[in-house]
Amino acid sequence: MADTNNVVADTNTVAADKNAVVAKAIEPEIPAALALRATHPDFRTSFRVKYVAAGAAYLDGGRGAGLAEGMKLVVRETATGSVVAAASGKEDDIVAELEVTSVAEASAVTDVHTPKRDVKAGDLAYLSAQDEQSLVQQNTLSATRKYPTVISFTEGDTLDEEARVQVPRPPMPSVNRARGRIGFDYMGTQFRGATGGSNTSLGMVARLDMTRIGGTYWNASGYWRGNLTANSYSGTNTLQDLLNRTYHIGMTYDNPNSPWVAGFGRMYLPWATSLDTIDGGYFGRRMGHGSTMGIFAGSTPDPTSWSYAPNRRIGGAFVNFEGGSYDDFRYSSTSGVGVSTLGWKIDRPFIFFENGLYYKRYVSIYDSLQMDSPVGYTAGGSPGAGVGRNFLTVRYQPHERIEFDGNYSYFRDLPAFDPSLVGTSLLDKYLFQGFSGGVRLEVLKQVWVYTNLGRSNSSGDSKSSLNQLYGLTFGRLPWVHIRADGHYARFNSSFGNGSYESVSLSRTLSDNFRLELLGGQQNFVSSLSSNTKSKFVTSNLEMNVGSHYFMQGGFTVSRGVSQDYDQWLFTLGYRFDTRRAKGQ
After folding, report:
1. Which residue would you say has higher pLDDT here, 258 or 306?
2. Inter-axis angle of helices 30-39 and 129-145, to 10 degrees?
């Protein structure tokens, strides 16, 4: 399940920084919407959530109802009635914020951002005030502007000199929309232990959400944080340094009227997310009948990758076939070939396969497999061609409050990820090897329990061992309205064994205030790391200052054999939204 095979959104508050800036929900223009509905009975400002899966919500309206990629919606509690809920300006009524990522004629797919509880089937999603206002304007004008308009001149024969011109509609809300934050960091680190020392550095942070840039089909989105000055300390990387390399940011080109697709930045290959994150890009062409062919290349900066190395680069070619509908059955199948290099020397050629079968929200089957032939990288030489790694996940959700999953994972080689991140839950998908199964259950409103149990029997083990994970999540704690999660995991795998505990707290007030706290400890016995036992607490506070600025502060304390330091961070930056600047 997502708790063990993917980065767990409930326990990983760091992942919240990846989310794009979303529109603030304010009181919509109800009179304008009602007036328009009198002449346009099909006009809609609210949409029902049909089902939810893997962090995405599926709505019962699409292109025919005016939805477009990049639009923002909010899910509100509707106990007092849908009309009242829509008009309410209370932030406490907001359950989650949605961003449209894919649109069909009668349905739409949205990403779920800043949830206060799990979005569930039957919830109502309301257009943000900005998008509703644009949709009202567009539909009001469309009755006269979608037909040729007669223009008469002041001289000559009117019948001869009448000109019929097509007056264009206003641009879609997503066209040339730019939102984001850019700031400068000051970070200081005090190292403890025998080595001692301190370090200060200046850095930069950027969070972007830009759609249809300049009226084109180029989009930019993601989050990035990095240093502008070199560290004066040459010791081990801190937790914050490692996390900074897990974020994604990039530009993509996707024109529905063109067969070409492209993207560059720090990202996954969209059709094969099982490959490592790349600092590079891809280029492809739609071949028709749901097929896409392309190439990709880049370095691999993410320390959570199984085969991470600072000087590793990968490149290759792929072909993808996909079809079906989110309302029914759909599928996606990707296969390709590639080569991995270390310092520009061939490390291993590989072939990969990634396949998925899905039926509504009820059933999903996902499998990724990579076969390679490593060069002699160990004392015993190369193991030869064969299966390097394999993930298989089957999920079944008979009801919106319960989900079952079965998993199988296999790794032939020892990992190269940074084990300092074990306690952050970013490496959960690697900890359980062999077969495992789990369940996630909403026992009370906004209270979930989840578990995963499995037998590990990797290629180097003399006997199987029990892997276990238990967790508890509160969507909103009473009175304080804080989202909380805690979980415990014990594992025994080919690269080490141990346990870790983590607790996360978060509170978000629309786009104005965000508070996050993550703490944990890990006991890890492995030949891959000397940081066998460590504890850490990291915090982050971000708030808006006025209409165009923001401040951020954070503090991290880590106590371990190699990770022993105190670190603080202060950020001052500028935030922008082109639609607000135009008075929309």
Report:
1. 258
2. 30
What pLDDT band is residue 78 in, cutting at 50, 70 and 90?
A: low
Task: Using the 3D structure, point to which of 395, 417, 439 is the last residue of a domain.
Answer: 417
Out of 45-59, 95-109, 197-211, 368-382, give the one with best mean pLDDT: 197-211
Separation between Cα atoms, residue 388 and residue 575, nearest integer Å: 45
Name the domain boundary from 98, 127, 156. 127
C-beta contacts of 89-94 below 8 A and 24+ residues apart: 89/26, 89/27, 91/25, 91/509, 91/510, 92/481, 94/25, 94/510
> Which residue would you say has higher pLDDT here, 331 or 175?
331
Is pLDDT above 60 for 581? Answer: no
What pTM was estimated for this model as a whole? 0.67
Phi, psi of 52 (to 5 degrees): -130, 135
Quick count: other Cβ atoms within 10 Å of Cβ 157?
A: 8
Vertex 214, ends 211 and 216: CA angle to 5°?
70
CA distance 490 to 470: 9
pLDDT for residue 571:
95
Name the phi and psi angles at 430, rounded to 5. -95, -15
Query: Is pLDDT above 60 for 73?
Result: yes
| Secondary element (H or E) of residue 436 | strand 434-444
Task: Report CA torsion sign: 96, 97, 101, 104.
Answer: positive
CA distance 263 to 254: 9
Task: With CA atoms as reference, report the closest residue to 557 among 536, 584, 583.
Answer: 536
Query: What single letter denotes the amino acid at residue 32?
Result: A
Q: Which domain holds residue 59?
A: 30-127
SS3 call for 545: strand
Report CA torsion sign: 503, 305, 389, 462: negative
- H or E segment at 132? helix 129-145
pLDDT of 428: 73
The tally of domains found in the chain comes to 2
Asked, for residue 145, whether it belongs to a domain, the answer is no
Contact 191, 565 (CB under 8 A): yes
- Model pLDDT for residues 145-168, shown as the tens digit of each residue: 333 333 333 444 434 433 333 344
In a domain, 486, yes or no: no
Average pLDDT, the chain: 78
pLDDT-based confidence at residue 237 (cuts at 50, 70, 90): confident
What whole-number distance in Å separates Cα of residue 480 and Cα of residue 508?
11
Would you give the DSSP letter of residue 172?
P
